[in-house]
Amino acid sequence: MKRLWPQHVSSARDDIKDMKQYADATDEQLARLSQDHDREAFLTLYNRYLTKVYNRVKSRVPPDDVDDVTQEVFVAVVRSIGSFKSQSKFNTWLYTIVNRQIADFYRRRSRKGNDDRNTVSLEAMEFGEPSYQHELLDEQAAIYRAMNTIPEHYREIVLMRFADGMSFAEIAESREQSLEAVKSLYRRAIQAIKDEVGEVQ
Amino acid sequence: MLKDDALAAFTDAMLENRTMELTDDLHDLEGVVRRLNQAIQPNRLPDATFRARLTQRLNEEWGQMERQQRVRHIQNQRMLRYVAAAAALLLVATAAILLATNTRVQGSAAGDDPNWLVLFMVALVAVGATVTFYVWKNRRR
Predict the structure, then answer these.
(1) Among candidates B30, B37, B32, B15, which has minimal Cα distance to A167?
(2) Among residues 14-43 of chain A, which lie with CB inside 8 Å of chain B?
């Protein structure tokens, strides 16, 4: 029986046939195929973004909870892939889900009355002396708090460099800004984190 | 401008495991960059066990979503059949009533034409109502 695909799906499918490889497909093409229940397309997207999402979660959530929050992000992506609009950029949509899941994580913690954001697993941090560990853990917790507090445009530029591994030139291209503007924004973002954290040294 | 370039170059060097000295006026930001690097550890990938567990969980979630889609598809098909049957029933009933009425008034001056017009109108309304109901039902999902 011939199956009728929505027009945008047919178009993405034809493009993929031409390319013969999911690896060459854009995020948006893969997202549209995923909307049509193409599991291979979804797994390609998942493999493409796992490390980036994992790094983004690591920057804002204590180490013990990183795996769980990352898992919740991808489960939410599977459940809501149908709501992805083909006009949007996939990574923008994905990072909105990351932000929402992190916010949900902290909301759940505060509901449980367990908002001990300074408490992070010593084992997970893999540092040396106990006193040094505590000192570092306090500083790491301060970084998580700062990353959750600074304005979105500051957080995004830091995450693009550290979590996504983009160079400043790539960030400038992606944001359609000059390299100078991006570096300036980055310095102001780091300054904002410092202001939140207080004296780090 | 120089400060922006210097901090960006320091960040690049640190992420590439190169050493680089910052000027005194940027020394206070150096600690923040180092702490960020320690917190995120961009070069440390998710471990294989976690990846395997996550992939399995996503496959389960994907399977569940497909099952739900199939059930929804079947429900839609079933609804379509019910609606078609109801429309057909309505048409037959209307036709029967009109034919009975037509038989009673046969030989009158009114003739057949007005009844066929009524039949056509009723059929049109029935089809329209059916389509509207079907669209409304699907929009609620």
Answers:
(1) B15
(2) 37, 39, 42-43
